[in-house]
Design brief:
By secondary structure, the chain is α/β, with parallel strands linked by helices. The chain is built from 15 helices and 12 strands. The strands form 3 sheets. An 8-stranded mixed beta barrel has the order 1-2-3-4-5-6-7-8, surrounded by 4 helices. It has a two-stranded antiparallel sheet with strand order 9-10.
């Protein structure tokens, strides 16, 4: 065993002795017993901070080399953390222009976040409406993000309502994101954090997985991070290491991806948000609807089926996602496993007042007007269509 380990990584003989024997390293003497460092090593083993290999993490924390710390990782039998799996993704806005999504998918990109809205009015919303269905059709996981300008809770709620309404016609299968990276109105830390929470809660109530995107420095200095820990986190830091925990790391703003002519933001995710969860669909995406009907209010048990989301279950029982989360102690509203038994209090509602149509080959706005009896102007306004002559196969449009 390298003397460096003896000098820099103080490990409890009692804890490591059976592990040493199990992995067959041989007889090793550990003369030090610093339980604080042992506990921190174990914490590092389970944290996997920012995708950094465990041996790198230990090396940075304990002031030793990767070689010495890697031995510790082996002894702790946590090699899976050293080789942590990451998922390749990008995020785009109208600045990326026309995108060939099939080429993007073939380049190994698994997910994309597309800018949908900004403030309470955004002239480029049609870019999201046009590209999200195409990215989904190419097999990518698709999330949406909103660029925040708010400084108060009231402003945050207004922006959240605009964002949620704007993305409601698209069947997202990745998180809905609050992009909070500026504080031009100089709001106090508590006030800005209150506003962020109000926005994120609104996303959850709408049935989406809520995620916060921000810069490492902005999170640690402009916001009260301790109050935001329940939300999934996407951090921007253009550095060789992330240097903190996060669910997604935006590590570059100058990437090159096939199918995109401009530079693009590059990301790695440390968890698959669709791996064990059902994904959200737009409300009532079938092509038919009828007047809503309900049964008497009661508390019952509901078993999650394939295709269910908390949003859909909440609508079925005329309750809210927030109520289901509270009643069942759910930690992540965006993730519910098939077979999970949920307590539900509410009355069953089987239908919706709005009607949506999934665009098929040969469909035009004129065809939808005739089929559903709505006007061209209504369909254009409901779906923020920039050009009514451009609708795409797979696009979910509100038609009534």
């Amino acid at each position: 065993m390298d003397n460096e380990i003896m000098q820099h990584v103080l490990i409890s003989t009692t804890i490591l002795a059976p592990i040493v024997a199990a992995v067959g390293v041989g007889s090793v003497a550990f003369p030090f017993t610093d339980m604080d460092i042992v506990l921190r090593l174990w914490a590092g083993a389970f944290a996997g901070l920012g995708g950094t290999g465990l041996y790198e993490l230990i090396a940075k924390r304990e002031g030793t080399s990767k070689k010495a710390a890697r031995w510790v990782a082996i002894l702790l039998k946590k090699e899976e953390d050293i080789n942590m799996t990451t998922i390749k993704g990008i995020d785009v806005s109208h600045w990326q222009g026309v995108i060939n999504w099939n080429k993007v998918a073939k380049d190994g990109v698994k997910f994309v976040f597309i800018k949908a809205t900004e403030g309470t009015s955004y002239s480029k919303l049609s870019y999201f409406k046009e590209n999200a269905p195409k990215a989904l059709a190419a097999g990518l996981k698709v999330g949406a993000y909103h660029y925040a300008k708010f400084a108060t809770v009231a402003e945050a709620k207004a922006e959240a309502a605009y964002f949620i309404d704007s993305i409601s016609s698209i069947g997202l299968n990745y998180p809905a994101v609050l992009d909070l990276e500026e504080n031009k109105k100089k709001a106090k830390k508590k006030t800005l954090t209150d506003a962020a929470i109000a926005f994120l809660e609104a996303i959850e109530d709408a049935g989406h997985t809520a995620m916060l995107y921000t810069g490492k420095s902005f999170l640690e200095n402009a916001l009260d991070e301790s109050r935001l820990k329940k939300y999934t986190l996407w951090i921007a830091r253009y550095n060789s290491t992330l240097g903190r925990s996060a669910d997604i790391w935006q590590h570059s703003d100058s990437g090159k991806i096939n199918g995109i002519s401009t530079k693009v933001d590059l990301n790695v995710a440390y968890r698959d948000f669709t791996d064990t969860e059902n994904t959200d669909s737009p409300p009532n995406t079938s092509n038919t609807s009828s007047t809503s009907s309900t049964s008497s209010t009661s508390t019952t048990t509901y078993t999650v089926k394939k295709g269910d989301t908390l949003s859909l279950i909440a609508k079925k029982y005329k309750t809210t996602v927030k109520a289901l989360v509270s009643l069942n102690g759910i930690k992540d509203p965006g993730k519910i496993n098939i077979g999970l038994k949920l307590k539900v209090t509410g009355s069953v509602s089987t239908n919706s007042t709005k009607k949506y149509h999934t665009v098929k080959s040969g469909d035009t706005v004129s065809v939808l007007v005739k089929k559903y009896g709505s006007s061209t102007a209504q369909i254009k306004n409901w779906n923020s269509l920039k050009n009514i002559d451009k609708i795409y196969v797979g696009q979910n449009l509100r038609v009534k």
